[in-house]
Design brief:
This protein is α+β, with helices and mostly antiparallel strands and about 350 residues long. The chain has helices at about 60-65, 85-95, 100-110, 145-155, 165-170, 180-185, 195-200, 205-210, 225-230, 275-290, 335-350; strands at about 10-15, 20-25, 40, 50-55, 75-80, 115-125, 130-135, 155-160, 240-245, 250-255, 260-265, 270-275.
C-alpha cells in the first residue's frame, strides 16, 4: 500500500532470531528489508547477529506501541545490511554446533554439582558468542562453569536464567488439546495462574490435568475466566444454605451454562432437586427477610422430555433384493429332453 502524501515510511523493522526472541531495529534509508529476508543486525557488544525480518511498515509501529517501546529510544540498534551468502553459511555453521555444545555444557555442570538445567543454547550470528539459557530453583554460582566453558569452546559466554514457562515457549511442543503450545506460537504475556481459576470454572483440582508441559498451571485457564466470573454474578454462593420447613438444603452442583443448581436436603443425599439460579436467589432473599419456604419441590423446574419419535428406516439401496447381482441359474434344456426320452423308452420296453 502506498503511504499518504507527505508521510515518510517507518524506518524500523521487527527481526526474529532463534525460537521466539524478537527485537526492533532501525535501518538506513537506502535499505528496504522485506518480510522473511535475512539481515545482519548490531549487538550490544562486539560482533553482529543474523535474524529474519518478520514485520515492516506501520505494523511495527503498532507492535511497539503495544509493547510500550519508544521508537525514539537510543537503545534501539540498527540493521547493518542484508545478509550475504557468506553470513548465512557462518550462521548455519554456528547453529549446527548448538546441540553438541549444549550436551557438553550439561556435562560440565554435572561435574561441578550445580543444581541447574541448561535448556537451550543460542549462538550469535558471527559464532563468537553463545547465550546459555538455564532454569534453577535457587541462586547458582556458575563462575567456575563459565571459565570451564570458555576454555572448552573458545567463545564468549553469557548465562541467562529463564522461568519454566519461558523454557516451554522456547522449546515448543504439543499440548493435551492436540495443538501447538500457546506460549510458543502466539502468547507473549505470561500472567500468573492460580487454582482459583479452576474453581471458578468448576474443574476438578487434578494437578496432572491442570498442569502444562512446564509443570505450572495451564495458561488457557485464564482465557475464559472473565466470562465465568460475569456469569457467576447471577448465581448464589455454593456455601449458602436454603432454609425450608422440610429441612435445610445444601447445594451439590451447578451448571453455569444452563443456569441450574442442584440441592439436597440434609440427610437425604440421594434425592437431588433441580432449581434455576433465579429460584435459588428468591429463596435466599426470603430467608434473609425471615421467611421460610415450605419445600424445594415448589420451586423445582420440571423438564418435560419430548416424546421419542418413531424412527422409520428406509432401504437406502432401493427395493431390489440383495442377490440381484448374482448370475441366474441356467437350465440345460438338452439334458431334460434326453431324460424324458430315456424314460419313455424304458416304459415301452416294460
Amino acid at each position: 500500500m502506498s503511504l499518504p502524501a507527505g508521510q515518510a515510511p517507518f524506518r524500523l523493522a521487527e527481526v526474529r532470531f532463534k525460537n521466539s526472541r524478537k527485537g526492533f531495529y532501525r535501518f538506513p534509508a537506502d535499505l528496504h528489508p522485506t518480510i522473511g529476508e535475512a539481515v545482519v543486525t548490531e549487538v550490544a557488544q562486539s560482533g553482529y547477529d543474523v535474524g529474519r525480518v518478520t514485520l515492516t511498515g506501520e505494523l511495527v509501529r503498532f507492535q511497539m506501541k503495544k509493547r510500550k517501546v519508544d521508537p525514539e529510544s537510543e537503545e534501539i540498534l540498527q540493521i547493518k545490511r542484508k545478509a550475504s551468502q557468506k553470513d548465512i553459511e557462518v550462521w548455519q555453521a554456528a547453529r549446527n554446533k548448538e546441540t553438541e555444545v549444549q550436551k557438553r555444557a550439561r556435562e560440565l555442570a554435572l561435574h561441578l554439582n550445580l543444581q541447574m538445567k541448561i535448556s537451550d543454547v543460542e549462538f550469535q550470528g558471527d559464532g563468537k558468542k553463545a547465550t546459555f539459557y538455564y532454569t534453577a530453583e535457587q541462586r547458582v554460582d556458575f563462575r567456575q562453569l563459565i571459565k570451564d566453558m570458555a576454555k572448552a569452546f573458545g567463545i564468549r559466554i553469557e548465562m541467562r536464567q529463564i522461568g519454566l514457562r519461558l523454557e516451554a515457549s522456547r522449546l515448543g511442543g504439543v499440548g493435551s488439546c492436540g495443538r501447538e503450545l500457546c506460549c510458543s506460537t502466539w502468547l507473549t504475556d505470561f500472567r500468573s495462574v492460580s487454582t482459583a481459576a479452576a474453581r471458578y470454572q468448576q474443574l476438578s483440582l487434578n494437578p496432572q490435568k491442570l498442569s502444562g508441559q512446564c509443570g505450572k498451571l495451564k495458561c488457557c485457564l485464564n482465557f475464559e475466566l472473565d466470562a465465568y466470573r460475569s456469569a457467576l454474578k447471577d448465581f448464589p454462593r455454593m456455601e449458602t444454605k436454603l432454609k425450608t420447613e422440610k429441612g435445610i438444603a445444601i447445594c451439590q452442583k451447578m451448571d453455569i451454562f444452563k443456569g441450574l443448581l442442584w440441592y439436597t436436603y440434609k440427610g437425604e443425599w440421594m434425592h437431588w432437586y433441580e432449581l434455576t439460579a433465579a429460584a435459588a436467589q428468591e429463596i435466599i432473599e426470603k430467608n434473609r427477610n425471615g421467611e421460610i419456604v415450605a419445600a424445594l419441590e415448589e420451586y423445582t423446574q420440571e423438564n418435560e422430555k419430548p416424546e421419542a419419535k418413531e424412527v422409520v428406516f428406509e432401504n437406502v439401496v432401493g427395493q431390489d433384493s440383495l442377490n440381484r447381482f448374482d448370475r441366474p441359474k441356467r437350465r440345460n434344456k438338452g439334458r431334460n429332453k434326453n431324460r424324458q426320452h430315456r424314460n419313455r423308452k424304458s416304459k415301452r420296453n416294460d
